[in-house]
């Protein structure tokens, strides 16, 4: 039973399309390793958030306007089998990104604040499948990261130039193709980058420094199971070690005694979906997602807390080609931003935020 026809590619619904929590964008999937034969895919996803809040009277009030810009993510993967047991894959993705831009002229205390971050990663993986249907896989990942920020209310401007670093991937899976069963556990290591940095505080340029960051380690648990010959239940649990992540340029840390951005807790994001094969050419899927709120104050550079999502996908198969398209709507949790002048008190409240993601993927089996 070709269960995989139903949902292969639907992962873009919870990955490159619309992960608006923290900086997580691609989901770092290794699913291409489980495609059959020699296979290549190209994917693109974009997410358009709407995130706004209102400042407290202590900071002059004012509506922030939409402070979250659109994000796009490009992906490419190629996979090939070598005999009955060995497979290898090369994956390009853009795992972490941010696009913050508070409109000017709103009277909001953070008006004019801009923050951008981008990353690119190339991952080489090898998988060995035992006769018992258990497989082990792993490999190396090279990743680059860069960021820049302008914060008028703190009179701070900073640029952390592109730097790269290596990490690794390790995983295991169990498959039972005759019933569409597969369970895969994947570990992604943290990756360190030492970015040459230039910044100014209070209008005065500071000596060049190096900003060291560790993009977080994570674990993905992916599972799917056939309910009948044309219907598949699938899901993902993704844990990300965000509590160990921070961006703390040395001059910023020395002046303001806190990181530019940091998170208090790790995140666990759950996705559950059902896929159905309607005809030989058409399949579809629906997904729901959930991430619990952290509580406490959120950063002005990411004023949302937790999420809920629903997504729809359609998959068209013709010969060796498969085209997947999808849309996802995400409700972003309400958040409270700390007053930067009187720490420990509320500076703004954000509510009613959401994001719309759209993605497409084209796959071809040779």
Structure in words:
With 366 residues, the chain is mainly beta. The protein has one domain (4-365): Porin. The chain has helices at residues 4-7, 250-256, and strands spanning 39-50, 53-55, 71-82, 86-93, 98-101, 114-129, 134-151, 156-176, 181-188, 191-201, 204-205, 209-215, 218-228, 231-240, 246-247, 261-262, 267-277, 282-291, 297-298, 307-318, 321-332, 335-338, 346-350, 354-365. The chain has a 14-stranded antiparallel beta barrel with strand order 1-3-4-6-7-8-9-13-14-17-18-20-21-24. A four-stranded mixed beta sheet has the order 2-23-22-19, with no helix packed on it. A two-stranded antiparallel ribbon has the order 15-16. The longest helix has 7 residues, at 250-256. The two termini are 20 Å apart. Residues 1-20 have low confidence and may be disordered.
Query: What is the helix tally?
Result: 2
The CATH topology corresponds to: Porin
How far is the first residue's CA from the last residue's CA?
20 Å
CATH homologous superfamily, by name? Outer membrane protein transport protein (OMPP1/FadL/TodX)
Tell the overall outline: globular
| CATH architecture level-2 label | Beta Barrel
CATH C-level label: Mainly Beta
Question: Could you state the order of secondary-structure elements as H and E?
Answer: HEEEEEEEEEEEEEEEHEEEEEEEEE
Q: What is the helical fraction, as a range of percent?
A: under 10%
Assembly form of the protein: single chain
Q: What's the pLDDT, averaged over the residues?
A: 91
State the low-pLDDT regions, or none: 1-20
